[in-house]
Specification:
Layout (H helix, E strand, L loop, with lengths): L18 E4 L54 H12 L18 E7 L6 H15 L4 E3 L8 E6 L1 H7 L3 E7 L4 H6 L16 E6 L4 H16 L24 H10 L10 H15 L16 H11 L5 H17 L5 H14 L4 H16 L5 H17 L3 H17 L3 H17 L3 H19 L2 H16 L1
Parallel strand pairs: 2-3, 2-4, 4-6
Antiparallel strand pairs: 1-5, 5-6
Helix pairs in contact: 1-7, 2-5, 8-9, 9-10, 10-11, 11-12, 12-13, 12-14, 12-16, 13-14, 14-15, 14-16, 15-16
Amino acid sequence: MLKSPPLSKPNSATCPIAAGRAWRLGAVVLAMGVLIGCGAPELRTQRDTARAPSVLLDLPPMKLFSSLRPAKITRSNTSIARDFMALSFQLENGTELSQFTRFDGPITLRVTGSAIPASLGPDLELLIARLRREAGIDITRVGPNVDANITIETLPHADLRQRIPNAACIVAPNISSWDQYRHAARSDLSWTNVMRREKLSIFIPNDEAPQEMRDCLHEELAQALGPLNDLYSLTDSVYNDDNIHSILTEFDMLILRATYDPALRNGMSRAQVAQRLPAILSHINPAGNRVSTPPFTPTPRAWINDVEAAMGAQPSPNARRAAAARAVNFALSQGWNDSRTGFSLFLLGRLSVGADRGLARAALSDAYAIYTARSDTAYHAAHVALQLSAIALLDNNFDEALRLTNTAIPIARTAGNATLLASLMMTKAEALTALGRASEARLVRLDSLGWARYGFGTDEQVLARSSEIASLARR
């Protein structure tokens, strides 16, 4: 079976001093590895090439996304207002924030550090342009030696891991460098002590795949500018600990636009923001006034604890599967039929392949049914489709693998997820090969490699993933 990165959570989920992106290789923690084996999964780094071919073939040039088309908003302003308040006045660990904070005036941003990857510049410029256009934020990049409100510093992932083992990247207030972060007192880095945002730093690895770095830019800059919390109930946002979305969505841009609306200001209380928010949303999102609001059920801590245990780095796969099963049972007992139930089933299916392929297939199929029934979770369904198509290869059900990948590939492309896209295309190529359509398979496989170079980084990683997926069909 293909091994996957650990389904891990960042330390910052329980620590108020920094917000961080959970480590996963590629763009999405749950979609990059196709299947999990019987043993505990080990983290694959870009230097792990044990399964790569001994001779590296010439690969096509890396492909980049010149534009991004994130998911559209389909929810009511009433539900958006509820989520805005939950995101803006609480940290991920449950700590309440007493007042509203943001930057005042024009925002400057700089990039520092050694060995700044070539892909970072274009990805950052695309993101800044979207923030200016879609969120109405006056943010400008300045030179590395100019004082700036936001400093993005690149450094080796090993340095990040030494300080925060399970985080791929982090954002921290009141500092402008990694050196300051290393020597700062805990209280100086606490978001609970921030009265207004004036200076902060984002730390991202410079030795990971381009897509991982891009996703860090999106998630950490979103938290640097706006809310610090994540909500599992969100289906259309990077502000969700399920890590499905990896680029800022239309919902995220709306949340940021509301954050910087002139009607709000630093120091406002929860009640003051709540009073002004309906008028703000009516002005910037009038369509949201014409959408009905479905019943809302909060997410209990018991379910979150089981999900985090299933995604955790504990060495026992049995314990993680048991936690995922508890999350499924809890979701069903609550009568949920939403993304939380789908995610619970996704976790259980993903973690059960090596131990019980029948259970894995059933859980993933149920997750797929939940996700495909809703327009706002089509991207979630694409992630599940990768898992199901891999099982289909193992079952020699090549027509099913082809059907699933054909449905998911356009969604992954639209979402800007090269790692998911490449993996789906590689799976499709193997299905086509097995069905005797070799010429089509060659074209799809070649196309996948350019996207894989962006999603996985090194040639060794690209070819190792291609070999792993090919081995599923050969079994």
